[in-house]
Every structure is written in C-alpha cells, then in structure tokens.
Amino acid sequence: MDLATVIGLIISFGLVAAAIVTGGSPLVFVDVASMLIVFGGTIGATLVSIPLPKMLAVMPVVRQTFFSSMESPAEIIEKFMDYANRARREGILSLEPIIKQIDDFYLRKGLQLTVDGLEPQTIQEVLETEIQYLEERHETGAELLTTLATYAPAMGMIGTVIGLVQMLQTMSDPSTIGPAMAVALITTFYGAVLANLVFSPMAGKLKTRSKEEVLLKEMVLLGILSISKGENPRIIEEKLSSFLPPKDRKQDVT
Predict the structure, then answer these.
(1) For 132-143, what is each residue's pLDDT tens digit?
(2) 126: phi then psi, degrees, rounded to nearest 5
(3) N or C: which end of the chain has fewer CB within 10 A?
C-alpha cells in the first residue's frame, strides 16, 4: 500500500469536507442528478475515447498508484552480487536452481536466458522489448486517468448549464432561484474535485511509478548482461551502484 497516496487523499478530501461542514449542512452538496451527470458522463465519454478491452487491460497498472511492491536498488545490487559470485565460483549453470525461487518475472526470465546460453546481444534485445511494452502499458494507464481528469470538469460544466436552463424556466418564482443556482453549481464542484483531487494526481503518481519501475528494470538488465559476459563481481557492483544517489553508495574504507 502506498501511504503517500492514501494520506494525500485523506488530507485533500478531509480538508474539503471540513470546509463544507463549517459552512453549513453538508447535505446541500449532495445531489443525485448532478452525480449521475458527472460520474456517468465522465465514464461514458471515456469509454467512447478508450475501448473497453483496453481500459480493463490497464486497470492493474492503475492499481500501482495505491499498491507497489518494487524492490529497492540496494536490494537488487545485493541479489546480483550473490548471483555473480555464485556464477564465478561454480559456473553459470549453478544459477538454475535459484531461478525457480525468483518471483520477479523479468529477473527470472533474464537469468533463464543467461543460463540457457544465449548471446548477450540476444538477451538484451529480448529484455529491452519487455521494457518497451511495460512503458507502453504504463503510458496507456496514465492516458486513461488523464482522460478522466479532462472529461470530469467538462461534464460538470454541462450539468451546470442544464441546471441554469432549468432555473431560468422558473424565474417567475424568485424563491426558487437561489436553491436552483446552488444545485447547478454542484455539478461543477463534483467535476473539479474528481479531476484535481483524484484523477490528475493519480496520473502523476502513475508516471512516477513508471519511471521508477523502468529504472529498476534497466538495472536488472545491466546486471543480467554483466553476468552473461562473465564480468568480475566487483565490476558488476560498481556498474549497478551507478544507479544509486552518491550518498547511498557504499564507500570504500582505506
């Protein structure tokens, strides 16, 4: 669970709710018709823009805004140092029993290709293709959230226009103008909240997650290629450490 996302949503919605409560009854911000226009219209317009199979396919990607189980670069370095030392002492085939115990599909695939004796260039091509399609899936997920963030305020404006038209039809009764105007503006409120407190921040978080995951995949790729070339474990460690900020790298004690 990504605590930053959860805490951010709690703070943003909590403060908005607190402002509503301090200004009067929160029930005046509840309008079923406005909800139908904004929520239903946003989902419907998004379905027109993005095919349903594609939307369903990227939903697991969108979940990464709340759930993330990525390893840290330091943990990856530690793993590869173990793999490199084992391969250097006992040969590359000694890694085969370890492969079955690896949960990460990308790392497992890379080590399997290495154990199978493929050329480093071939391994690189295969793993780079995996990274390419990973980026495309994440890009589609961010596009979905951005589309939702675009349509939500627009549907809010449509709801406001509908409310204003209905209000103008009852101008003969001044007592109905205030409540009707309030209801008309609620749709804009719903659209703005969805776009700026939910969809846009989630799209930004997903883009950040994508960059982090791609960086880790590139790190794993470099480690796999180094092992397949039979490089010295010390050299491998130095290469992988370049992915870390200087303050997080191991310092040699002389």
Answers:
(1) 998 988 888 889
(2) -65, -45
(3) C
